[in-house]
Write a structure and sequence with these properties.
With about 180 residues, the chain is α+β, with helices and mostly antiparallel strands. The protein is built from 3 helices and 6 strands.
């Protein structure tokens, strides 16, 4: 996957921790439950952005400072007995996301038509990964592994809207990151 090429409209190239998990095609109720969980978590992540702004951990808008302090305290309390994060959450890798697809690199191939969950870990202050069901469209070999392209599956209109907002947020973060390195 070329990460220096230009983007098409609607594409967001980001550095995220993620994990691909091959799973059997889910029953409709499991697909709907996964969609509901993803929508709930994206809403929470977007609310975190509202509290903290686009800054680093600990940065937040002045009027929301008391709420931010309470949220931080609550997260520390809830996570106090939690085991360490899985190793995949520590490594950010390039990924390209659109409102309908995702493209990423994997060490091994996946067959077109295969289903699974792509788990993203975009918000370090939240302990959960964002799991989205996908169906593989293509897997092409490359020098660093396999470039996997998959289509999101089972999303309601609400989840698609939240995904659009989430992608816009990622785009803003990547622009800010690029400006910092210049």
């Amino acid at each position: 996957m070329k990460h220096d090429a230009g983007l098409s409209p609607g594409e967001v190239r980001a550095m995220l921790a993620y994990q691909w998990q091959v799973l059997p095609r889910p029953e409709p109720n499991a697909l709907a439950k996964g969609d509901q969980d993803a929508a709930r978590l994206m809403s929470l992540m977007l609310a975190f952005e509202e509290i903290y702004g686009a800054g680093a951990p600990g940065d937040y808008t002045a009027e929301l400072a008391p709420l931010a302090a309470r949220v931080d305290w609550l997260l520390r309390w809830v996570l106090a007995d939690r085991d360490a994060d899985p190793g995949w959450r520590q490594v950010q890798r390039p990924i390209v996301l659109t409102p309908s697809t995702a493209q990423w690199m994997e060490p091994s191939a996946s067959a077109p038509g295969e289903w699974g969950v792509l788990r993203l870990y975009p918000e370090p202050r939240l302990p959960r990964s964002l799991g989205l069901w996908v169906e593989i469209e293509a897997a092409t070999p490359g020098p660093d592994g396999w470039c996997i392209r998959a289509r999101w599956q089972g999303q309601t209109d609400e989840t698609q809207e939240l995904l659009g907002k989430f992608l816009f947020r990622l785009h803003r973060q990547e622009v800010a990151r690029a400006r910092q390195t210049q």
